[in-house]
Automatic annotation (TrEMBL):
SUPFAM superfamilies: Lipase/lipooxygenase domain (PLAT/LH2 domain), RUN domain-like. Keywords: Guanine-nucleotide releasing factor, Membrane, Repeat. This is DENN/MADD domain containing 5B. Residues 684-704 have a biased composition (Basic and acidic residues). The gene is DENND5B. GO terms for molecular function: guanyl-nucleotide exchange factor activity; small GTPase binding. Residues 136-170, 673-706 are annotated as: Disordered. Residues 141-170 have a biased composition (Low complexity).
Length: 1270
């Protein structure tokens, strides 16, 4: 069945092109200076920019894609009109742009800019007059030295309003009056003399298409321009070619190629099939050649993490090429934020945008990077394309398997002869790379078409190759004006095919990487809603993806990147699309990704977990390139040839060098041209009929059926430079920041409070370090973008740190008269009761951050300050104090800035205040190498506080990151202050007195309090026991377990003038049980067994959590409710004691006697000639007890039993020791008949519980096992 490829009169959505546009100078309105170009009037008028206009566009409008006149004009000529003379370069230039409609549909514009001679006398006269005025003002200002000269110069500069009608109102006599004294400078650079110079002005031909057909559009426009500049008229009027491309050339069907005809030859385009990657015609190879593989991977990482990306280049097409290349590599994800690869000077206010963006800005000649006003650079990726440089934000994580990925990409580039290191500059001009062949005869043209369609056999193809070789030997050269040799044509075709194959192979490598990472993403989708409406109504509070479970099966090296990527809008949108696909059709990109995943699973026979799988290279490079090669070498469809139109006589005349005014009535709309329908060429292949939905495949920007999946700003508003539109845009930015703050704080609270409690005495909730770092990094980014919105005065790269520095300078000026010499020293303030000032002072927190490290950047200092304020629960309070200085705010910020919107600012601070309801250790755990001042306070029992005068104690504080070493407390003092490397979260404290302190050195200690002078965290170490010889268990050293005191309790405690609120401690609980013999009899066996099971269960849960979520193991072993206390209760149950008047009974006494009894029995067996060896468990029990007793530390009987349990559980011996203790003859004499130790069922249950703990590797803190070598 033959299929035609005509689109005559069809819907605009099925056409190859939507609009044809011509932009240039409007001779009727004259020259208007481009006020937004940011140029100085000191420049010569010939170098200034002037406003351009859309001269014509056809058709007037299309359905679903209305024409945006102002946006297209701005993007066709981003710098406005440019004038040149015959001494300047007049080479044509090509660039492209993209326009996104309000419904999310993206269109592509392709622009061929050339210089056309100015024939309007008014324009020439106006330029002559402007130059003469500039010359006079320039010389007068340079020769005069008085201030009045500059005033007169500025006064004589023509304003915008006076320039509007300059060309039409200026009379010839006015121009002649300025010619005196000017002739001496004519002929200089930038000069203009109408009598001698020829004036040229830029004009743009633009084609707007629904899909990115870069090469085809570039060739069509170049051929159109060549027809204009040629001395020979084209075969048909230009209207015929424009009409043909607008109304008669259709989109190629998916998986097919299409040939249509330009002015000078055939043009081929192709479209991927349903199972292939979307259409990507921009040359990725050129982008990789410019930036290098490393930089491109770094740039893609920044885009995936939704940083702000700013591209910088002199060439507009390079900006578009890199931007489109990066967004193409994002498949299956889509950029959700501002996307403007080209922004002109009037749109530079968008650099203030406090949202992620991907924008490009032109690098003007002589301009420096420092001249760019970038309000916030903390999360900015700056890409200097011409210098082959990518400046990524600090702490950018590595892309998963980045080293292997770079190696694979390098191999692909090398296979095409491109160096992977980058820095290769490719010169691309509109004339050299885009023009299609102009062959010398129709025979050669037909041969070319037959070769392209694969219709030449072996002999014919060999003859054509011989003809090509003959053309080369004969010089081949000029077949006609503007034409090319046959050899050159073949070379261009080969280069185009090579670029297309390289494109698809590079994209396949990245697509396979995303498949490897997210191939099982469907397993972690959470479908909790019953219908679409309920999901939409509860979307903010619904978790649609199980991030924790997903991260738990990923390699550890990938977690830093993945944890941040899962928080991005593009991933959320991707997941939302999957969720709503239960009720509506899936988006094309997601459908394509899912189908590729299903196909890969069919051939994936590996049963390895994703975290253990090795890196797998892409295996479909050859097949993907072969599919494109088949389509390009053998065309599937041919469109209608251009033909004569029903035009008025005398129209369409050829004027070499001038693009004519086209007939509007012919091009305004499609006409039925049945006369030429017989010229339609049938398809060379047959294919089944496709539905209309197939033509909207995934190769373009997919149409958004669901508006809730896209959060981007409307581009039509962004491209509007009017003051009203700019104000409205920044109003939307303000509302967006407030909404983002609400969602982020809500998410942080939900994650922080929703985690399973870790048993730390108070049941404190814990969050994984990975998730905490990710969420807080997002908060830092939000604060940077908020403080950068509307900022006009900045120091360094961080907007918030810049504001803090200005505030610090202001406060120090106010405090200067009251300051004492040396009071700025941190050590001085700390030694003079400084902590009170430190705890609540914004300035003091800043000063500490500034002293942390000399090499810390402004961004790093800002993040450290935010971490510290958040951990101290003073972030909202500090920011509120910072924002009370209204005069400073007005000085630093523009009127539209978020921080000057009072109502929104207060709501922002309110949302941040909600974070005070949870505890963070983000500063302590992030900045681990800094020095922290600590204060340790020993609090004795109030009634016995006088006893502290007789002791000389020492302390050693231990935490997650190390210990402080032994710190001696001065005599007659109860506190000590010292500096130490950050200890992290505190866990244990060793408290002791010297061996030679004497019998009088004893004290009943209630608790020890350790205060972190920087973060304000207070740890309380309950004791409740005696310290000293001859009292209690005679311990000279205690190992205490710490508890983090809530800020409320800390405030109630003041400066520790009294006893802090008492919390239960293990020893106090034991004393309650052992208070009397009657108390022992009331200790029920069921309660003891339940406590034991609970303690073991907490340990099992601890080890079954991801390592980042685990709490403090020492607390679970030795703290209240820990294993040591539970086993102590077990051994005390049913214990007989003859000490009626001595309250304390120690389990260690029984353990020591049991060991002595075992050794005695063993010795008696030796005396009676027994040959039975002592069992290994019995031998280890005796050895461990002797080692503990011979330890140089005097830790008392309670401390020894604690050490006994910890060593036994660490070395998996505890389950073997308890049966030995139960079988010892001493047990029957020491325990009552109903004791748990003598109950076989209870003992068997205990051993099974202890055996379950043998599956885990337990590492003990150094403070627990110090002095014991086992």
């Amino acid at each position: 069945m033959n299929r035609t490829a005509a689109a005559t009169g069809g819907s605009a959505s099925c056409r190859f092109a939507h609009y044809f546009v011509v932009c240039g100078v409007d001779t009727e309105t004259g020259l208007e200076p481009d006020d937004g170009a940011g140029e100085s009037f000191e420049q010569s008028p010939i170098r200034r920019s002037f406003k351009s206009k859309v001269l014509v566009h056809y058709p007037e409008n299309t359905d679903r894609n209305p024409f945006n006149k102002d946006a297209v004009n701005m993007l066709c000529l981003p710098r406005g009109l440019s004038f040149r003379t015959q001494v300047d370069s007049l080479d044509p230039q090509f660039h492209s742009f993209t326009v996104t409609s309000d419904d999310g549909t993206r269109s592509y514009g392709f622009v061929h800019t050339f210089y056309e001679e100015v024939t309007s006398p008014q324009i020439i006269t106006a330029m002559q007059t402007l130059y003469q005025m500039h010359h006079v003002e320039h010389h007068s200002s340079s020769s005069a030295s008085s201030p009045s000269s500059s005033t007169s110069s500025s006064a004589s500069t023509p304003s915008a309003s006076s320039m509007d009608s300059l060309a039409s109102s200026l009379e010839e006599s006015d121009a002649e009056s300025l010619t005196s004294g000017v002739s001496g400078c004519l002929g200089c650079i930038g000069s203009f003399d109408a009598a001698r110079d020829t004036l040229y002005v830029s004009k743009a031909l633009c084609l707007i298409t629904p899909l990115p057909f870069l090469h085809a559009s570039q060739q069509f426009l170049a051929q159109l321009h060549q027809a204009v500049t040629s001395q020979t008229a084209p075969p048909l009027p230009l209207e015929s070619y424009v009409y043909n491309i607008l109304y008669e050339v259709p989109l190629p069907p998916p998986g097919r190629s299409l040939r249509f005809h330009g002015v000078q030859g055939p043009i081929v385009c192709q479209r991927p099939g349903p199972g292939e990657l979307p259409l990507g015609d921009y040359p990725l190879g050129e982008a990789f050649s410019l930036l290098g593989v490393d930089n491109m991977v770094k740039l893609l990482t920044c885009a995936l993490l939704e940083t702000q990306v700013l591209l910088y280049s002199k060439d507009y097409q390079r900006l578009m090429m890199v931007a489109e290349g990066i967004t193409t590599l994002l498949f299956p994800f889509q950029w959700q934020h501002i996307y403007l690869p080209i922004i002109s000077t009037p749109l530079h206010h968008l650099l203030d945008a406090p949202v992620p963006f991907l924008m490009g800005i032109q690098h003007r000649n002589g301009a420096q990077r420092s001249s760019l006003h970038l309000p916030h650079e903390a999360n900015l990726c700056f890409v200097d394309i011409d210098s082959h440089c990518v400046e990524a934000p600090e702490d950018l994580p590595l892309f998963p398997d980045q080293t292997e990925l770079i190696q694979e990409l390098s191999e692909v580039l090398l296979s095409f002869g491109l160096p992977p290191r980058g820095g290769v500059t490719t010169t691309t001009t509109a004339g050299s790379t885009s023009a299609s062949p102009r062959l010398s005869s129709l025979v050669l043209e037909d041969l070319m078409e037959d070769r392209r369609n694969g219709n030449l056999g072996g002999e014919e193809l060999a003859a054509l190759e011989r003809l090509q070789a003959l053309a080369r030997r004969c010089g081949g050269g000029k077949v006609s004006e503007g034409g090319k040799t046959l050899g050159h044509v073949f070379e261009e075709e080969e280069e185009e095919l090579k670029a297309a194959k390289l494109n698809i192979q590079l994209r396949e490598v990245f697509a396979v990487r995303f498949s490897a990472i997210f191939g099982r993403y469907e397993d972690f989708i959470v479908n909790s809603a019953m219908d679409l409406d309920s999901w939409l109504n509860n979307r903010d509070g619904t978790c649609s993806f199980d991030k924790g479970s997903f991260l738990s099966v990923q390699p550890a090296a990938h977690l830093h990147f993945l944890s941040r990527f899962l928080e991005t809008s593009m991933f959320s949108s991707f997941v939302d699309g999957k969720v709503v696909s239960r009720w509506v059709d899936r988006e094309p990109l997601q459908q394509l990704f899912d189908s590729r995943m299903e196909r890969e699973r069919l051939y994936d026979i590996s049963d390895e977990e994703s975290r253990n799988r090795p890196y797998r290279k892409c295996s479909t490079l050859f097949e993907s390139a072969q599919a494109i090669e088949r389509r390009l070498l053998k065309t599937d469809h041919t469109a209608i040839h251009p033909h004569l139109l029903d035009m008025r006589i005398g129209q369409g005349r050829h004027h070499p060098g001038y693009f004519p005014r086209l007939q509007a009535d012919v091009l305004a709309q499609a006409h039925n041209t049945h006369k030429y329908s017989s010229r339609i060429t049938a398809s060379r292949r047959t294919e089944p009929r496709r539905s209309a939905s197939d033509h909207s495949g995934s190769d373009g920007e997919p149409k958004q059926k669901h508006a809730f999946t896209r959060r981007a700003f409307r581009q039509s508003k962004l491209l509007d430079p009017s003051p009203q539109a700019v104000s409205q845009t920044h109003r939307e930015f303000v509302d967006g920041l407030l909404s983002e703050c609400r969602l982020k704080t809500k998410r942080m609270l939900k994650e922080r409070m929703g985690k399973e409690c870790v048993e730390l005495g108070q049941g404190e909730a814990n969050i994984t370090g990975l998730q905490e770092n990710t969420l807080i990094h997002g908060l830092c980014d939000l604060l940077e973008r908020t403080w950068g919105h509307g900022l006009q005065i900045k120091q360094g790269k961080s907007a918030i740190w810049s504001h803090l520095l200005h505030y610090q300078a202001t406060q120090e000026k106010m405090e200067a008269p009251a300051d004492v010499p040396g009071s700025n020293s941190l050590d001085q303030r700390l030694s003079d009761d400084g902590p009170l000032l430190l705890r609540g002072s914004l300035i003091q927190d800043m000063r500490f951050i500034q002293t942390m490290r000399d090499d810390m950047s402004e961004v790093g200092q800002a993040r450290a300050w935010i971490h510290l304020a958040l951990e101290k629960k003073m972030l909202s309070q500090h920011l509120k104090e910072l924002l009370t200085h209204q005069e400073l705010l007005r000085q630093l910020y523009k009127p539209h800035a978020f921080l000057l919107c009072e109502e929104e600012r207060e709501q922002f601070l309110y949302h941040l205040l909600s974070l005070n309801t949870v505890d963070y250790l983000c500063f302590t755990r992030t900045f681990t190498s800094i020095s922290i001042p600590y204060r340790v306070v020993i609090i004795p029992m109030k009634k016995l506080s006088i006893a502290m005068a007789t002791v000389n104690p020492w302390v050693c504080v231990s935490g997650e990151l190390g210990d402080s070493g032994v710190r001696q407390i001065p005599k007659n003092a109860q506190e000590i202050f010292f500096q130490s490397k950050n200890l992290g979260r505190l866990s244990t404290l060793q408290l002791g007195v010297q061996e030679n302190s004497g019998l009088l050195a004893k004290c009943l200690i209630d608790c020890v309090v350790v205060y972190n002078e920087i973060t304000g965290h207070t740890h309380r170490f309950p004791c409740g026991r005696w310290l000293g010889k001859g009292v209690g268990d005679g311990s000279l050293e205690r190992v205490l377990i710490g508890q983090l005191v809530s800020p409320g309790a800390e405030e109630d405690a003041g400066r520790w003038s009294g006893t802090p609120p008492e919390l239960a401690s293990p020893s106090q609980s034991v004393r309650t049980v052992l208070g009397s013999l009657g108390g022992r009899s009331r200790m029920h066996s069921a309660e003891v067994q339940e406590d034991l099971r609970e303690a073991a269960n907490n340990l099992v849960k601890h080890f079954h959590k991801p390592e980042q979520e685990r709490g403090n193991l020492t607390v679970l072993l030795c703290g209240e409710g820990g294993l040591v206390l539970a086993l102590e209760k077990f051994l005390l149950h049913g214990f007989r004691s003859n000490r009626l008047f001595q309250r304390n009974v120690f389990v260690w006494d029984f353990v020591e006697k049991a060991v002595v009894s075992m050794e005695t029995i063993d010795q008696m067996g030796d005396l009676h000639g027994s040959t039975l060896p002592k069992s290994p468990p019995c031998d280890s029990l005796c050895r461990y007890v002797h080692a503990i007793n011979s330890s140089p530390r005097n830790i008392g009987k309670e401390g020894k039993f604690q050490l006994f349990v910890c060593l036994g559980i660490r070395d998996r011996l505890l389950s073997q020791w308890f049966p030995l203790l139960a079988e010892c003859p001493l047990t029957a004499r020491t325990y009552e008949d109903g004791a748990l130790l003598r109950d076989r069922a209870a003992l068997h249950s205990l051993c099974r519980i202890l055996q379950t703990l043998n599956d885990f590797s337990i590492t003990l803190e150094a403070a627990l096992v110090k002095g014991v070598d086992l």
